[in-house]
Amino acid sequence: MSDNRAATLSPEADRYDRCMTTILVVDDEPMVRDVVARYLTREGFTVIEAGDGLHARDILSTTQLDLVVLDLMLPEIGGLDLCRWIRQSSSLPVILLTARSEEPDRIVGLELGADDYVTKPFSPRELVARVRSSLRRAALPPSPAPEADLRPEGDRPTPSDGRVIVDPVTRRVIVEDRGVELTAREFDLLAFLVDHPGRVFTRGQLLEHVWGFETSFDTGTATVTVHVRRLREKVEGDPANPLHIQTVRGVGYRFQP
After folding, report:
1. How far apart, in Å, are the Cα atoms of 226 and each of 69, 233, 256?
2. CB count, 10 Å around CB of 226?
3. 238 and 158, same domain (yes or no)
4. Mean pLDDT of the chain
5. Dihedral of the CA atoms 212, 199, 162, 147 (nearest 10)?
6. 254 pairs with which residues across the strands?
7. How many CA atoms lie within 13 A of 20 on its CB side?
8. What are phi and psi of 236, to 5 degrees?
9. Could you tell me the pTM of the whole model?
10. What CA–CA distance (Å, rounded) separates 46 from 158?
11. pLDDT of the residue at 177
12. What is the spatial distance between Cα 128 and Cα 140, in angstroms, rounded to a whole number?
């Protein structure tokens, strides 16, 4: 399975070429697949469909893809198992389709590395917006290894808090001289919080600024909460008692230098 590819376009255009972007839609309901495929095709994307997890895995093994829209409840191979299998070898963006009653599975999916999810019944326009957002982030250049910094000393980033270095140019994060690997969304969330030290943001505000869209409270709660948890596991010495990515009860989160 190949990692996603990206084309370089003008600053006014998306950072990917829609005509060259292939999306796999996996859902056992033909009507759902048809609606999603029609909306994505109308936007200029190439769409491949699969009605079960086994067929989807075969496509993933043999086809170069850029993003997967994945239903959780699938025959043959479940959506969570397929998401786990994808993450074992690829950073391919994954957007989950879930029912409202599947909240525990949604959270597990995000913890497995899914980039986002949409709750059924959903707005096809909202799904397209989330597809665009995930593709833009996937098109960003990968972070080099920490030791590869050859820039003049004056151009190098400085620690934001004496312990964590966040470099927006190379999209690199270093914690106590150790390079930390973050997903594109995790980096954007951390960089945004670090850029506003001490300021408290609600989950809705973080979704708007980091994810680039507004959504329901329930969806925002799960998405932001899981990404914050994953960030803490990677950058905090004691994730259960975070020093820097702090929770402000009843409000949201802040970065404390």
Report:
1. 19, 11, 19
2. 19
3. yes
4. 80
5. 0
6. 246
7. 11
8. -95, 140
9. 0.66
10. 43
11. 75
12. 19
